[in-house]
């Protein structure tokens, strides 16, 4: 028994004297994130999932009834590279609204994205924008898509933002470095859909060793969004066993107006490859 005590103490002393790994500097972590995304965007494209999206509106205290509206959307969600090379755009093809099948006009979204011509992609984009009419609340939005924030951390746009270290947290069992970010000035990466600049800010949780993105929080500020008391889009990523990629598991959103707050929660399942046919053809 006495021998065992000495052995245990010796192990503890050795552990306490072991050199501690130093956290990677912020600029190194950011470079790893950008490298991760450069590889990620080549793997996550041509992916499709089923999206279940619940939205509800709550009145602020003192303004009467608590929950005043609800909506449930069931959609097929496509990730396909756009003709201009933008990597993170999502095409939401709404199939049911509150359990009722949506009557569609034109060709199915899957056929348009398979064709991959400029005209077909433009038609798919128009369909996606038209689907925004199913969102409830007084906030017009097409950026309620789970990969929107990733574009901000790519090599293309990192230089437009100020980043700072915001601590360490565990996400899905992994220790993540939390990085805060804030866009400096216009012209901005994201617009309000009417030509106005929307400044972005938020946090991102990353694996500091690999640069893998585990969670994002995206908010907006500036004149174009001054009517919002609060706003936030939060996305959690989880490794998909079939595709062996970190893919969105859940998206939550909040938009606060004077009297009411709009909430949303989307979950994603059944990820699989979407086979597009042919090559992108530019019309004469």
Separation of the first and last Cα atoms:
87 Å
What kind of oligomer do you see?
single chain
Level of helix content? Answer: 10-25%
Q: What fraction of residues sit in β-strands?
A: 35-45%
Number of domains: 1
Alpha-beta content class: alpha+beta
Mean pLDDT equals 86
Q: Report the order of strands and helices.
A: HHEEEEHHEEEEEEEE
Compute the CA-based radius of gyration. 22 Å
Largest sheet: 12 strands, antiparallel
Ranges where pLDDT stays below 50 over 5 or more residues in a row are: 1-16, 278-284
Would you count the extended β strands for me? 12
Q: Number of helical runs?
A: 4
Shape: globular
Topology:
Blueprint lengths: L1 H16 L8 H19 L2 E13 L7 E13 L10 E8 L2 E2 L7 H7 L2 H13 L30 E11 L2 E10 L6 E2 L5 E10 L6 E9 L8 E11 L4 E12 L3 E14 L11
Antiparallel strand pairs: 1-2, 1-12, 2-3, 3-4, 5-6, 6-8, 7-8, 8-9, 9-10, 10-11, 11-12
Helix pairs in contact: 3-4
């Amino acid at each position: 028994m006495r021998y065992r005590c000495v052995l245990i103490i010796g192990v503890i002393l050795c552990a306490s004297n072991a050199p501690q790994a130093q956290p990677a500097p912020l600029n190194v972590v950011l470079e790893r994130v950008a490298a991760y995304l450069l590889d990620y965007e080549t793997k996550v494209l041509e992916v499709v999932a089923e999206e279940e999206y619940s939205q509800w509106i709550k009145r602020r205290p003192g303004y009467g009834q608590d929950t005043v509206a609800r909506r449930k959307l069931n959609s097929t969600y496509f990730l396909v590279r756009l003709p201009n090379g933008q990597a993170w755009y999502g095409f939401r093809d709404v199939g049911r609204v509150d359990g009722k099948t949506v009557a569609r006009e034109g060709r199915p979204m899957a056929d348009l994205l398979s064709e991959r011509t400029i005209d077909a992609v433009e038609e798919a984009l128009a369909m996606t924008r038209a689907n925004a009419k199913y969102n409830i609340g007084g906030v017009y939005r097409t950026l309620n898509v789970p990969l929107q924030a990733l574009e901000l951390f790519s090599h293309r746009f990192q230089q437009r933002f100020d980043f700072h270290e915001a601590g360490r947290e565990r996400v899905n069992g992994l220790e993540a470095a939390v990085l805060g970010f804030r866009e400096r000035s216009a012209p901005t990466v994201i617009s309000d859909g009417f030509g106005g600049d929307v400044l972005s800010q938020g946090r991102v949780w990353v694996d500091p060793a690999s640069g893998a993105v585990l969670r994002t929080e995206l908010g907006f500020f500036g004149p174009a969004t001054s009517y919002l008391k609060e706003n936030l889009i939060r996305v959690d990523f989880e490794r998909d066993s079939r595709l062996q990629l970190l893919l969105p598991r859940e998206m939550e959103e909040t938009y606060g107006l004077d009297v009411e707050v709009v909430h949303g929660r989307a979950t994603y399942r059944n990820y699989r490859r979407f086979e597009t046919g042919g090559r992108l053809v530019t019309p004469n």
